[in-house]
Design brief:
single chain; mainly alpha
Length: 286
């Protein structure tokens, strides 16, 4: 997205500044267009969780079912066990990793400086970013669930109550990761260092939060560290949707703790909003 393109779609030929909402909707269209025109972005944020689920599901298929009850029922195959973690990872990659590196790049290339010199409100700019993340996350989720169900034969929940639970966890998690992506964009000093700063954080969180490794297998001290960060709670909330109820016994407290899931994601959402409000600038730091 460039300042010129933003003006063209936002003003629609008018000489007066567009409304915040209309300019934000124009920004959503521009962000989506730019997103799907970047093959590396599509691969590493959109398709990556799907590829990882396929790898884990196929590689560990010979293990058979895990978590079965004493009577032999209630077990799930590894693809089904990894699915909630990959859903959480997809939200993390789209919201935090992609957004943080994207904003740093736009600062480094001077796009935000040009936007800052226009009548465009920062709110409209962030509406565009948030809208793009929400839409691409929904598309990614739909493709991930279709792949899991049709290719890996994962049995998806049939209870409407579980899908309602999924909806609020997904929306809250997406909003939280979006705010944290904006906040984290203030840390790299240049577009060159953005990947070096953001990607290690993202990888580390995935390994300690129950995405790639079974959370109950981690030492207690590492589980406690992971519990400080939002990805652990997002992954736990997703496990409560896609895994049978008796899998809650494998969690740190022995229950799904949905109240704590909402509380911790909400705290990080507010923290991200405050940090973003205090640190965001149209221009990069000198």
């Amino acid at each position: 997205m460039t300042a010129t393109a933003f003006r063209t779609e936002g003003f629609s030929g008018s000489s007066r500044a567009p409304g915040i909402l209309s300019a934000g909707l124009a920004a959503v269209r521009l962000e989506l267009r730019g997103y799907f025109r970047s093959p590396d972005t599509v691969f590493f944020t959109f398709l990556f969780p799907i590829l990882m689920l396929g790898i884990f599901g196929i590689a560990f298929d010979s293990i058979g079912e895990i978590g079965a009850l004493p009577d032999g029922t209630g077990g799930v195959h590894m693809a089904g066990y990894y699915l909630p973690g990959m859903v959480a990872a997809g939200i993390l990659l789209s919201g935090l990793q992609n957004l943080a590196t994207d904003i740093v790049r736009e600062k480094g290339e001077g796009w935000l400086r040009r936007l800052g010199g226009s009548p465009i409100s920062p709110i409209s700019y962030f509406i565009g970013k948030a809208g793009q993340i929400l839409i691409t996350s929904i598309l990614q989720l739909a493709l991930l669930l279709l792949f899991a169900s049709l290719v890996l034969r994962v049995e998806l929940p049939s209870d409407p109550a579980l899908w309602l639970r999924f909806a609020w966890i997904f929306l809250l998690g997406t909003a939280t990761m979006t705010m944290l992506g904006i906040a984290l964009s203030a840390l790299p000093r240049s577009s060159r260092s953005a990947s070096a700063v953001v990607i290690p954080v993202v990888l580390l969180l995935q390994f300690i939060s129950g995405v790639y490794l079974q959370f109950s297998m981690l030492p207690a001290w590492l589980q406690n560290i992971a519990s400080v960060f939002p990805l652990k709670w997002l992954a736990q909330g997703m496990r409560s949707v896609f895994l049978p109820d008796h899998f809650a016994a494998m969690e740190q407290s022995g229950t799904w703790d949905l109240g704590l899931v909402a509380l911790n994601l909400g705290i990080w959402l507010v923290a991200g909003l405050v940090i973003a409000r205090l640190t965001f600038r149209w221009q990069r730091r000198a």
